[in-house]
Design brief:
Blueprint lengths: L8 H7 L4 H20 L3 E14 L3 E13 L6 E14 L1 E9 L9
Antiparallel strand pairs: 1-2, 2-3, 3-4
Length: 111
């Protein structure tokens, strides 16, 4: 969830789950977007629709996550979208979030 009253709240929560070396790389590109969204008074939220384990090993995991997102701007109808993320986790004592990247909605290897 993103609100103009707490533009970095969700980012801070995600970063707290990451390994320190990945936190800054995750935060940097989002800061520009959140500043713009806060300026335009945008409220955004997303709910998990589905998640599936793609890969699991003793030291890492990969999870595909499908989200339903809604973005509201004053004076405009809400905009809905489907978001696909590939979440990478690595073991640092416990599994820690390494990356969350946009993912294709198509099966691997499909054209």
């Amino acid at each position: 969830t993103f609100t103009p009253m707490d533009p970095s709240g969700s980012i801070d929560r995600a970063v707290s789950l990451m390994s320190p070396e990945r936190a800054d790389a995750f935060r940097a590109p989002l800061e520009r977007a959140t500043a713009d969204m806060a300026k335009r008074n945008v409220i955004a939220s997303a709910q998990v629709v589905s998640a599936g384990l793609e890969m699991l090993s003793p030291s890492a995991a990969s999870v595909a996550v499908i989200l339903r997102g809604t973005q509201s701007t004053p004076g405009q109808p809400p905009a809905n979208s489907v978001l696909a993320l590939r979440v990478a986790l690595r073991r640092h004592g416990i599994l820690k979030l390494v990356a969350a990247r946009p993912a294709s909605l198509h099966a691997r290897g499909a054209s």
